[in-house]
Amino acid sequence: MDDQNQNQNQNQGFESYVVIHNIAKRHNVGTLARSATAFGVSELILVGRRDFNSFGSHGSTSHIKFRHFYSLADARIFLKEKDCDICGVEITDNSTSVTSHPFTKSTAFLLGNEGSGLSAKECEVCDYFVYIPQYGCGTASLNVTVAASIVLHHFAVWAGFPERTRDGNKFVVAERPVHKVGRNFCTETAESVTAERKLKREHDAKNCFFEEMEGSDSSNNLLDTVFGD
């Protein structure tokens, strides 16, 4: 995110975050990053494995901060220290329509798995839930990136984020920031690297989020370029 947009959002007093956990199709992270930059998100928070495919980001990963945690509990502690609500995007018995803008402060949005939605563990960390009303009969739910875009747009409108300058029929894109190693992630210890590798092995078969795809291009994996060593 460029300094102008980030400073403007901070001046409004509200920030938004997206928490990414247990998303099965890792290329969705790239498109989520694109939507996040469009709607003024402060940080994308990866929980569990932190490698992902940048497909669909159209370069937007250079304009948003990433942060990584090994567990939802750690992510929740960080967000609560930021005085954030954690809002689950899910259809539940007590969900509120996102069109009613039930937000009261800075908010982190937790998106569910493409097939199964939010797990019981994920629901436990949420303060409340919103859903997106549908008016047609042809589908039971929306793609996770589409759902995220709609919810983030509603939050941006509620929070009063200033609209980005337009040039012709597109919005002005900031110059790509100069990459600084480790700008979005704290320096790792040997123990933390070992722990991550162990977690990666243990969860590959079971959870399948951000799974390695046979024949994938390693240049799309932003593990090192986004977080640094």
What does this protein look like?
With 229 residues, the chain is of the alpha/beta class. The chain contains 7 helices and 9 strands. Strands 3-2-1-6-4-7-5 form a 7-stranded parallel β-sheet, with helices on both faces. A two-stranded antiparallel ribbon has the order 8-9. Strand 1, helix 2 (28-38) and strand 2 (43-47) form a beta-alpha-beta unit. Helix 2 (28-38) packs parallel to helix 5. The longest helix is centred in the C-terminal third of the chain and has 18 residues, at 190-207. The model is unreliable at 1-11, 180-190 and 207-225 (pLDDT under 50).
- Number of separate helices: 7
From the alpha carbons, calculate the radius of gyration and give it in angstroms.
17 Å
Distance between the termini: 21 Å
- The chain-level structural class is alpha/beta
Report the β-strand fraction as a percent range.
15-25%
Number of strands: 9
**Most strands sheet:** 7 strands, parallel
Amount of helix: 25-40%
Mean pLDDT: 76
Low-confidence blocks of residues: 1-11, 180-190, 207-225
**Largest beta sheet: strand ordering:** 3-2-1-6-4-7-5
Write down the overall geometry.
Answer: globular
What order do the SSEs take from the amino end to the carboxyl end, as H and E? HEHEEHEEEHEHEEHH
